[in-house]
From TrEMBL:
It comes from Skermanella stibiiresistens SB22. Residues 1-22 form the signal peptide. Belongs to the bacterial solute-binding protein 1 family. CDD domains: PBP2_TMBP. The keyword Lipid metabolism does not apply. Pfam families: SBP_bac_1. Keywords: Signal, Transport. This is ABC transporter substrate-binding protein. The keyword Ribonucleoprotein does not apply. GO terms for cellular component: periplasmic space. It comes from the Bacteria. It is found in: Periplasm.
Length: 425
């Protein structure tokens, strides 16, 4: 695996190479995701740093599937590999990877750190060590075809049941009008971390808890949670295609952007792609908060986002840390927000006129982004990955019709109790 990663990195580095390098030039390898235009936006940023500093950059493309990416990272870090200097890590990984990551406390100016959302910074501090820097934050948002809601004289749904009814109405109407490929709602239903994210939003919107509470108590097996998962399962083969149980973010965007879905749950990255010049839905889409679980429920969005961390095994930690400083800076976060729709972690940018012109909903949904519900990664620590996998598999079993929600959640509770060693994470 190390050899494969090194070759992939080198091939990208050659494309970035400056024809003339100083004798002091160092080579820094960074892993970047490739969801949507993510890799291209990252490439532009690292090229700018390379040109400003005279150092080379190798870009390593990693899997979009977060589970596969984490497995790759763990393999490299366990081997103390120096193939990657800067890792792009998920918001739920600092506790899992902390022992392999450099402490950035002494290399990041405290005043710079104060510009970022405090909750995200706190998330990146493990045992008093700043093991990562916030790069962009995320929260689930609700995309809808505003032209179709106007056509059928329907308001933006406030609850999940209203969404179901409106999705069914418009789906039937559009199919009768000739589009037999139209669906009401698409979401990330595949058995992966994305399903944990979606299902946590369903649970929290029904006031059904967050799988494991802040004190470590397993709370997932409750009637409200069963109601939430049962409702979601009812969408499959009704307002959502059977294939949705195999959809990740890009499959959802593909259906929605081809004008074959009324509603979509996705991350903010999809906004500039939906409004690209060649997009069939350009100018026809708007964004709102995800629906509530009911009148006594709440609008809930799961916290996402990615950080940049420096490997303890980097041959060039000084240069790697400088690259992290540059990429997480206010100027670079502003550029990424405008060209890629990536949510800044710097509060002031949510009042920036240029940022809001590019993504107007950044201002409208500000509270959604700063108050997003966190997955229980801090309380479950190194066991979070197993907790999440057990949760998404239980939910997926219900979505696919293998079992009902009550049975699935009861079994999940028993499994998590064993994983937690009786509630002691």
């Amino acid at each position: 695996m190390r050899k494969i990663v090194a070759v992939a990195a080198l091939s990208t580095a050659l494309a970035l190479a400056n024809p003339v390098w100083s004798q002091d030039a160092k080579t820094v390898a960074i892993s970047c995701g490739s969801l949507g235009i993510e890799f291209k936006v990252c490439e532009t940023g690292v090229q700018a740093w390379s040109q400003a500093t005279g150092h080379r950059v190798q870009m390593v493309s990693t899997p979009n599937d977060s589970n596969e990416r984490l497995a790759l990272y763990q393999q490299l870090l366990a081997a103390k590999s120096a193939d990657i200097d800067v890792f792009q890590i998920d918001v739920v990984w600092p506790g899992i990877l902390a022992n392999h990551l450099m402490d950035l406390t002494d290399v990041i100016d405290p005043k710079t750190l104060e510009q970022h959302f405090p909750a995200v910074v706190t998330n990146d501090i493990v045992n008093g060590r700043l093991v990562a820097m916030p790069w962009f934050t995320d929260a689930g948002v609700f995309y809808y075809r505003k032209d179709l809601l106007e056509k059928y004289d329907r308001p933006v749904p406030s609850t999940w049941r209203e969404m179901t009814e409106t999705a069914r109405l418009i789906q039937q109407g559009e199919r009768a009008a000739g589009n037999d490929r139209m669906w009401g709602y698409v979401f990330q239903g595949r058995a992966f971390e994305g399903l944990t994210v979606n299902a946590l939003e369903w649970l929290d919107s029904f006031n059904a808890g967050t799988i494991v509470d802040a004190d470590g108590k397993i709370t997932v097996n409750n009637p409200r949670a069963a109601d939430a998962i049962t409702l979601a399962a009812s969408w499959v083969n009704d307002v959502s295609p059977q294939g949705v149980i195999n959809y990740s973010e890009e499959e959802c965007r593909g259906v929605f952007q081809s004008a074959n879905a009324v509603f979509m749950r996705n991350w903010p990255y999809a906004w500039p792609l939906l409004n690209a010049e060649d997009s069939p839905v350009r100018g026809k889409v708007a964004v709102a908060r995800l629906p509530k679980g009911g009148e006594d429920g709440k609008h809930s969005a799961t916290l996402g986002g990615w950080q940049l961390a420096v490997s303890k095994y980097s041959r060039h930690p000084k240069e790697a840390a400088d690259l992290v400083r540059y990429l997480t800076s206010r100027e670079e976060q502003k550029r990424r927000a405008i060209v890629g729709g990536f949510n800044p972690t710097i509060d002031a940018l949510y009042k920036d006129k240029e940022v809001l012109a590019a993504s107007p909903f950044f201002g409208d949904l500000y509270e959604t982004f700063v108050n997003a519900v966190a997955r229980p990664s801090r309380v479950t620590g190194v066991r979070y990955n197993q907790v999440s996998a057990e949760f998404w598999n239980a939910v997926h079993a219900t979505l696919s019709g293998e079992t009902d929600a009550k049975t699935s959640l009861a079994g999940l509770e028993r499994t998590l109790d064993r994983v937690s060693r009786g509630g002691r994470w």
